[in-house]
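Exercise: predict the fold of this chain.
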Amino acid sequence: MNNPDSENTLLDNTQSQQYIFVYGVLRTIDGHPVHNYLRGVSDFVGAATVGGTLVEMESGSSGLMLSGNPDEKVAGELYCIHEGCDQDLFEVLDRFEGCSEDDPEPHELFRHQREVILLADGETIRAWVYLYNG
């Protein structure tokens, strides 16, 4: 598993810049309406991976479970969130992922920061990602 505090992190999120890694139906190829909202409040950085595997959740969708196996990676996309848009975006995504304050507990997913690997150049960046809570 990657070390989130690694010295080779491209950018750290103590800066105002926030990033989000999406997988599954929120990627460009699926054309989901929530993806369209994401594109309006963020810029596509590139294809990326995060260490882990996809598991089928009770809801029928896939969730990302972290893995200690360096060969297990989940493909997705990395976005840079426009300044001042992070709170609104997280409210929309939390509702979509079923982990908002209004959703019943326990939540299947939760939002967390992890290291994400950019495929184009192999750099790492700290980004928000929704993880399986199982």
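Check your answer against the key: DSSP finds two helices and seven strands in the chain.
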